[in-house]
Structure formats: C-alpha cells, structure tokens
Amino acid sequence: MSLRTDVTAHPAATPYAPDPEAIPLDGRHHLATTPDTARWGELPHAGSVPVLAVADGDTVTFDLVSHEGILPDQGRDPVAFFGSFGVPEDRVPRDAREIAESGLGLTQTLPGPHIVTGPVAVRGARPGDLLRVETLSLHRRTHYGIVSNRHAAGALPGELPDGEAEFTGPDTRRCIGGTVSSFCTVERDGTGAESGVLRYGPGRAARFPLGPFVGVMGVATADETALSSVPPGRHGGNLDIKHLTCGSSLYLPVQAEGAGFYAGDPHFAQGNGEVALTALEAPLRATFRLSLVRGSAARRVTGLLGEPFAETAAHWIALGLDADLDEAMRQCVRSALDFLTTRTGMDRATAYAYLSAAADFEVSQVVDRIKGVHCMIRKADFRAET
C-alpha cells in the first residue's frame, strides 16, 4: 500500500470543512475518537486497557479531536461555539459533538485540556525497546480552527485583556471568563496554495503558512498513576514540536508492556514557543507507523538516550525538557552531545564546537509547565568525505 506523506487539501462545499467521506484512510487500522477510546486531560499508564492491539510495523489512522471549542470555559457545546463564528452545524465534526455531549470528564476536574486517543498496544513491545512513531499522513478535517489565550497562562500571564472582561471581536474573536478564542480559517489563494488566516478588522488579515502536526504523541508510563496531558516528559506526551509533521519519526523509550501509544492535540500550524498558550488547534486524520527498535539498533538511533528523540529527512532532533527554560536548554545540549558522540564518533569537545557553530537550538514551547527546547542537527553535515 502506498501511503500519503503530504497534507492534502480536499474540496469543500463550504469554506469551512472538507467532505468527511472524501478524506483518505491511509492506515491498516482505523481508530475513531469516541468516549470509549479517549480520555480527557490525562494520559494512559501501565494499567490502562488498550483500545486496539497491532503488530510491530502496523499502520494506524487516528481521527484526532481538538479540545478547542468543546472545553468547559467555551461552553462545552461546539455547535453553539463554532456557530457563533458562522460555522454550520453539519461542519462541526461529529466526534467532537459526541465527546462534548458525553459524560467524559464531567465527574472530575479536568487535569488537562487535551482529548487523548488510545492507548494502542504494539505486540511484543517491552521496557528497554524504542517505539518509532513515523507520521505518514495528515489530513485536515475542517477548514477552521482556534488559537486560545487563557489569561492565567501563556508567556505573558495576566497581561492581555482583563480576565473578567467579556467581549466579542469582529466575528473572529470571543473573550469569555478570561479566555480569548481567536477564530482562524484556512483559505486558498489564486495558485491553490493554502494559508491560515486571522482577521483583525475590515479588510485586514494576517496570512501564514500551514504546518500540520500532532502535539501529543507518547507511550504509557510505567506506574499506574494517570498523568496530566499538559507537561511532556520521558514518556513523550505534549511535546509540541512543530517539526514532527509528515515524514518525521519520533523515538520513545518504552516503559510498559505493549508500549501503549496514544495521540492527541492536533495542530494546523504553530510557531516555536507557542507563546499565547495554544497555536492553531484543529482536528486531523493522522496515520502513523508504529515500529519497535531494539538493542544496538536503538543505541545507534538515539545515542544511548533515555529520552524522546526525533528525526526528519534533513535533521536529527535532540530534546531538552525542564520546568526552567535555562535547564531545558542545558539538557538539550547534553542530549545533542550524547547523540553526536555515539552516532558519529565525534569527540565531545569537537561536538560542542559543532553545535555552537552549526546547530539550531529552538524553543519548542514555554506554556506546558515543562518547557521544551529542541536542537536541529543537519544530517547533510555528516556525509563521508571522499
């Protein structure tokens, strides 16, 4: 089977959404997000019952639901919420409506905002393995999304409009109870190229490139305590690294039998830092290949790291995670050094010099309690000399 590795634009009868029936199912398995296959605000752990079991190397298509538009502070009614921006009811994904109408999350204070789908067991996975998560295809399920700023969060907590204010913008913005929700559309120009569009006044708009990716990808933790979906960690989770788009691979240290892979927090676009709290959040149909890497092969991939690691066709990506941004940076430098010395044979002093001269350290996000820094190392810099 030939799998798509591009983000496909699908024609729509309205400016809001592709026809759900026209979006390809690229994986061998299909996992819908329902109240039975999802959890709201928390992550799977070693005691979580898998909602699907697959073989090593299988492909799984997830229909991922965005939390934006269904959260309690937005009314937990996506039809009414998106309707206030002019979205017809039939263009609000059915699974988002079902999650909002269900009892999911009603009996507790939500530990996090994200709708997390899974876990998926990979047969034969055991602690000590790496789970390789290849993102094969990403298809948009709507032609709109939301960027939210909750005033007690983001890079500038409390500095933007008064948390008690309630206002409506020019059909593109709502502020209710301290949450500003900015409505964003996806539009094509005359060449067919797509952009995200944020309007802020009559005839005025900011247009920016799309870069869909999945913000939450992780494995079950070793204990049986459910973690909040907000902070990332050794399990992966809410890494929010915008480079993990089609053609990328994320390597996660397996902590529990079966690995327990899950996904959520779909994005249409994000800038490094994600400073307002969210980026352009919107639902995706995402297909992953789930493969196991063991022994010496695992060591070659990550450089003996016990932390998540990633790569694209052009880059290796080392990660640093910590509540303190300075420490996250130091952790990222250490991870990059460990990777280079193990993978390339470079001595540590030369690797340090290379990172300073040639690698790019980027802030993944500063809004998820545990802050993230990632290092982009060009593969082309390490071609053998002739």
UniProtKB/TrEMBL annotation:
<protein>
    <submittedName>
        <fullName>Acetamidase/formamidase family protein</fullName>
    </submittedName>
</protein>
